[in-house]
Specification:
The protein has 127 residues and is of the alpha+beta class. The chain is built from 2 helices and 9 strands, in the order βαβββββαβββ.
């Protein structure tokens, strides 16, 4: 069994799509739009077969996100090497994203960084 995809509601569907395409090499499908409900979404595909569904609808609740909240804590992306973790982290920092940690080797042996990504969602970048 495998996880087919993870879904994320966002306020700005196009900005979220651009973030994942620009920084994490996502390949988006064509936008889905249900005209009767106003629901819109993109499926983003990543190397290795994982997918992320970005969703938006006219009425959503937007609660402040804290790093220690319940529910999904972060989405981790493997970029393949320590050098790529370092490079992408620096690019994101230069583009104004907040780096919460790293790059570093964690106590459980992961080399990673964690950034506050699109709409305050935490993105972990790992080998």
């Amino acid at each position: 069994m495998k996880i087919d995809h993870v879904a994320m509601y966002v306020n700005d569907l196009e900005a979220a799509r651009r973030f994942f395409v620009k920084y994490l090499n996502a390949v988006p499908n064509n936008e889905y739009h249900n005209k009767s409900t106003g629901f819109r979404s993109y499926f983003l595909s990543f190397e290795g077969g994982s997918r992320l569904e970005l969703m938006n609808k006219p009425t959503m609740e937007d609660i402040k996100k804290s790093p220690n909240r319940t529910g999904l804590a972060h989405i981790a992306f493997s970029v393949g090497s320590k050098e790529k973790v370092d490079s992408l982290t620096q690019i994101l920092k230069s583009d104004g994203y907040i780096i919460l940690s790293g790059p570093r080797t964690t106590g459980d042996g992961y080399y990673e960084s964690c950034i506050v990504g699109i709409e305050e969602n935490l993105i972990e970048i790992t080998v």
